[in-house]
Amino acid sequence: MYSEWASLSSLIHNGNEENFSVLGKFPMVEGKAVAVSVVKHLAGNLGISQAAEPSPLTTDREVLWCMEVVCFGLSLPLSEHDTIRDCVFVYCEWLSALHPVPKISVPKPVCEDPNLYARKMINHFHNLFVPRKGEAWPFLYLDIGHDVINRQAVLCHRVLRTLQTLAQVSNRMNRETWESLLLFLLAINDTLLGPPTVKDDVGDQLCERVLSVLFEVWLLACSRCFPSPPLWKTFREMCMNWRHRMALIEQWNRVNLVLTSKLLEFMYGPSFPELKVSEEDAQLIPSGMTNDCIAQAWYRFLHCIGDPVDLCHPAIISQTQKFLQYAITSEDVVDPYQHPCLTQLPKIFSKAIRGIAVLVDSFLGIAQPYMDEGSSEKKESSSHPSSATHSPTPPPQRRLAKSFSVAPSSAIKGMPKASLIGLTSGRTVTTSHSTATTNSGPSSTSSLTSVLSNLGQDTRPPLAPARPKCNSILHMFGEWLFEAAHIGCHGSTHISDNSRLGEASTKRPSSLLLDGSVRKSIGSGNSLGIQGMVVNASPSFSPASSQPASLNDATELPPTLTIEKFESGRAEALGALCRIFCAKKTGEEILPVYLARFYLALQQGLRIPEDRSGDARVCGEVLSSIILNSADLFRLDLDGVQVLVPYVLDALEIILPDKELSPKSQYVSKTELRRASIHLLLSMLVLPLHFQTLPIRELSSGSEKNYNPLTFIQLKPRLMNLLINALQVESDPQNTQMLLGGLLLSVQDAAAYEEMEQGIQLDQGPDTPSNLLSSDSAHALFVQATYLVCHRLMSSWKSDLNVSLAALELLAGLARTHIRKTDDLECKRAVKWLCDYVAQQCSRPPPAHSKDLHSSIVAAFQTAATWLSAHPFLLHDKECLTTVLEVVELGISGTKSQGKPGEPIKMKEEKELKPASMRVRDAAEALLTVILEQVGYFPSPCGAESLSSLLDEAALLRHCRSPSSLTPPFHRNCSNSFYSEQYKGSSPLHHFRYFVIENSTMLALLEEPLGVSDEQDSQPTVTLLIRGPFGRHAWSMQLRHLPRHKSGSKYHAPNPGRPIPMGETSVRPDFKPRYFPESVDRIPLCKVDHSIPSLESTFVEDEKSSMEHAHLARLMERQVAAEAAAMQKSKALLEQIRDSGGQVECTPPPVCHEFQTARLFLSHFGFLSSESLKEPLNSPIAPLMALDINQPGFSHDLETLDGISCRTCDTVHLFYVRARQKTADEILSNVNSSSTVNPHFLEFLSSLGWPVSVHKHPGWSGHVSTSWRVTESSSGFDLPVSDHGGSLYNGENKVLYWADVNSEIAFVVPTLKSQKFMDTISTDGSLTSGELSSGPASFDRSFSDRGYLPPTPVPPEKPMRTFSLDLERQQQLAQQDGSAGASSSNMANEIMPPAPPPPTRQKRLGRQGPGSLHSSGGDTKVLVVWLESFEDWINVPIGDLLNSMATGLEGGTRPSERESFVIFLHALQTGLLRVKLQGPSGRMTLATPLVDGMVVSRRVLGTLVRQTSLNMCRRRRLENDAYHPPHVRRRLKIQEMTQKYMIKMSEPELYTYLFSSPPS
Question: How far apart are alpha carbons 244 and 1135 in whole angstroms?
Fold first, then answer.
């Protein structure tokens, strides 16, 4: 840089003639006497001990003569301290002539020409800092006490402070004065710092101070009078002579940091992450310094110490004149590089490389904020700790050198007091032990940290979007970093497992120490480049060319300078390189030569050295640094990075399976090291099945000709074993959750791959990639994962909620994974483990019962429901069924009927209901309902879209036999007919009787028969709509005296004929019947007979009784008259028949067609018994209550009840973001055409669920206004769309849908059109009551013409919906149901874990908002964002996109960006996808199986995204205290309706109500 300029080093080394006084030519005694007397008089006028007086010196000659005396006084022996002090005071006062206001004691000639005299005084000051004649600095203090040394140091500080102040405040200094000042500072620094370091000498004491003044004054000179190139060259040469001083590197780092901070401000603008420095250091840059001046100064200061890698070469550092002179004069040191002070070179080298690494982080935008280590210990000077006793402490206003420090070791006493700048969070070495976790990454040693951090998310600051390209940073710092990364390395090839026994190492030439021609060839890619995935190194260079001879010959170096001692600096270099290459942007190209050097450096750094104490391998600093800083290595599109997979895998096999691993560096967090290793593992799990038999080329060409390359598929067993072993020993909660996510990814990916390859395997040989070892097949992984997770869940994870949830999520995912060879015993064992887990959690002592504990129990119940619904055969096992039902009983009642062995069995009525919590009871009830209603029957013939019956009152009445039921309101296309209040007299509701049973189940009874009228087979028929907590069900029952198949048989003759009459007439005696014999009348009455008064006598005194008696007598008379008239009429009719000679034929009574079937049903089911009708003592509601449907609002409340789904409903919105898009309108417009999206995006959409028509879909459709209803669409919504990029599923016409027994989820791709459509439906994100009135119960269906959509992503045909109304076709329908269930089994294999269980219930009755009816826990916003450029994730306008995500469940509150979950997906060039998660921080972190940073394959992407979305919503519901599960919300609504519409009736009134006909 300065090759064409002359250096001024000779001037500094040879000294300046102006530094010598004429008094030096006289004997010391005479010169000393003159100096003492003159200086004492001059100092007396300065105002030190008395008031200052004007100087008597008035001419130039007088002033020059006195200056000759002062110059000599400054060179006196240190014993003449008073005289030297007065000389210093005189000059310090006279230098104020350059100040804006000189002091009064300054001579007039000095004030008139201050620059001339200032240059002379500055040169004279040099005598204060140089050794005296006949004295050598290293041996100076053998004869002088420390007191003298300290006093001299104070004078030196005074001079330095004066000169520093002069440079700051003076505006009169010209260029010559500036150059003199800079040359003086260079000279005294070289004098003090050039010699080898000796403990407690003046150089050791003043090292920091003189360097800080030099650098700060130099910066001032750059602003006011930019130094000339000769000065810069001299400055660089001098600094290279002082590199054995620690303080130099600290000051160099400090100034580089401040200049870089300013440089970033004007280069990248205010949006670039600020590099924060201390306020004190920020003042180093003058306010008037221009941007161009800052840039020039930054580059020159950066290169002022030469190549920092020279610091690891003692021979180079010691090749200076002062070291050679010391070696000549010393008897202990034979060679200069053997000086003891050079033992500090490893620390100096590490600090220098760390400083460069901080600059790299600054350009990447990830440097940590400034932190002042105010509490740290006294700063060590240079290489030796300073003595607290003898350290000269300047006055408080003096600032000791506040040097930049990024590598003070916390374990070394005498820690430097430095202005600390935090490094990146992935750094290996930190400033102090207390801040180790701050600088080396997020600590997860406590469960609290794990809870508060998002799962797998990197807590380091994100890379700056406007950061420079990797090539630019490597152009600036790459040469130093690559060279530092290769120190002590020998090139060797990575031999595959098949040929590793014959390991043949080839020496690698240094890519940095080659001659110019070789460098040129390397730059052109001829000698060293990436060809595909291999790097060819030329073998023509010396094996030892990668390091200097001084390091190769270890026998000549002291033990403290061996190459292993420089490992810390090498680790810093490799860490910085990893961060640079991991900062690659999407589409950015990195020069092949840089990639080659980087891969070679990592190859060497990832080699596991053997511990000198034995054969055990350890995790050294280099390996730790690489692992900590390369988490994104395989997540980027780095060309040929796959060649590093075997080396990284080797390293991970050392770190992850070792529970007791102790990193070599005590500043590396074991937890963070394992987390970084897990990140790398998660990015490698899918590589074997993705690349399969693709060979992994060797990084360097070996000498073996018969080389057997390693393939990716051969790494699969090692990866799976590593994953299992890591999970077995992991103790950190966050790391455990990440491993659980990776385990489920591996199982599902293997299962999907085997299922896809099942047909291909039949035609291939045994060596095909599909023929995997049993240890890594999907079945083997399924068995291992189930056993391991269940075992650890019971043993060590049960106390941590997040880990328990992750484990249960994994088990639920395993339950729904389709394995070709399912192990029934393993499934049974998994359910048994789940039941034991629930029992164990419930049996914990009361103090341990908390919200978290109950949340884990609820999640376990949900997981058990998933296993049973996915494997119905488990309930065929008696033992399994007993175990499950016992746990259900435990959850509902709090105890088991069958206690410990030997204890008597407790019957149900003997137990007191004390469940662990209401949430646990609700979850157990839900599991019981799944067992009784859904296991083996899901999906139903009507599809998975609805668990409830699709029949309602209107549909039932259309199938009634009675024509009167088909009243005008029941039009075919009237979707809200039977809830309409305008048809008061003919509403379908008035044909039903409504009752509530046990305050939890509502019955709607229809007494009219269904189907075609059949007079010969007219049976009592009742049709019920049962609305309970778990849905709506339709029953149709007949009272039959014979089985259906025998009901048509007749057991009597069709015409038996009239019997022959008997001719004899019977004698009919005529007598009057008596109640008592005739003799009774003859018995006389006694007094006792008169004791009973007559009836007439009781009316004499009681007027009311008399009136009642008279009324009763009239009624009796009327009845007697009526009966007599009837008898007369009958006799007359008989006489008329006899007179005509005819005979009366006996005929059977007509068949009864009118039955009070509602009464029969209630009676037969035991609801009308006296005990059942009694009002319980603990409840004001009787077991059977009739409802008044004539009250206003009943139909609306009934519709609202039907609008509460019996499953959880969630919505996921998907967006496609093209490169550099930042506005919501641009993003929403991308999906309008397939040409603007990635084809894999459409493939991903099809894997999320099956498409459904919003207007024909009875389930959740993403918005309340279109959910749980079927309407006729006449606007052409169902027309097929030939070209779309996902806009077809915008919710206006179609959505993607998926459901299981516990949850349903809709996937919506919003567009600008759908956003406007939703805005017309909802206001402020919620529905009005009028809009909600058209609810799911208002299905207006033409059932015979409408088919259902099979629950498969691509439905083949739509079979006709059947509703079991034709009772004669039950067998045929059963066969159809069986076939439909079989066709739906494939979909069942895809069903993911159950919906989220509820938190603790809070009793909340009364009216609620429309949104709360469906989701009392709030609506969880989940976004899936497909990124073309990964860096755009930070610019996605989540807040604006939320406006297009209305679901009607918001309850009037605007969704918050902070409360939203975002899953970012980025397609890599390899065909894999990178995942990034973003979500709110809380007690429950982001859910699994997806983990932040995970790399997944397209085969399982849809399944994993769907499952993660469901788990996110489930965890959010678990965390919400106000959440009620669906069946609880339905039960509360039924109870609310009971309170509002129940009819208070006595038992007789109820019987009367039942015997009467329903109002119509």
Answer: 147
